Amino acid sequence: MTTGFAENSRPPALLRSDKKPAQWQISDGLVPYPTALAEMKATLEGIASQTGAEKVWLLEHPPLYTSGTSASPDDLLTPNRFEVFKSGRGGQFTYHGPGQRIAYVMLDLRQRGRDIRLYVRNLESWVIETLNAFNIRAYRRQGRVGVWVKRPDKGPSREDKIAAIGVRVSKWVSFHGISLNISPDLSHYEGIVPCGISDQGVTSFEDLGHLVSMPEVDLVLRRTFESHFGPTIHTK
Questions:
Q1: Whether CATH 3.30.300.130 fits 22-235
Q2: I need a surface site. Which of 91, 113, 122, 165 has the fewest CB within 10 A?
Q3: Is the whole model's pTM more than 0.90, yes or no?
Q4: Annotated active-site positions, please?
């Protein structure tokens, strides 16, 4: 059964009844995309077989494009600009690169209500509350997955996307997750139609005038994650 709630209200938290903590891992440097996919799949299998722990993995990728299961070839505007990877997640084309915080979220939804829509809403709310902590007013946009901010400086109806969300669920275990723009090179988005949306833009903390470090954002991400999904334990 899907839980109903207002579009921009805080959804019910998805807590484990046993309060078992998820691992919280932060990788330094740039992690190649195939490496991340292999690690996610291995973690997923461990969670599905109940031999491994849930994990939230924070990292950065080198510049690249990924295509989701709904990606249109026409939305890849400059095919030779960066390497393109088929991700297996939902959604269309997106960009990953330095200055963008990726959070791959691998949770056992069998222990968290088996409600994928509610899971996605919690991911969105997690990002929104993180941004609010830095005085960035963000919101979810009806009919569009992700997190948005208004840009009255660019037009009365202009909205820019600051975080993308793309998930996949296998054996009731989630993987993939969120990408939050801290200080990426926004010109790299020009090689694609991001998430199939051509009438709005893409922004970041830096673009909005908020100069913060990745560790500062990570601290808040962990605190707000725990309010939605329960305790975490740091691991290397």
A1: no
A2: 113
A3: yes
A4: 195
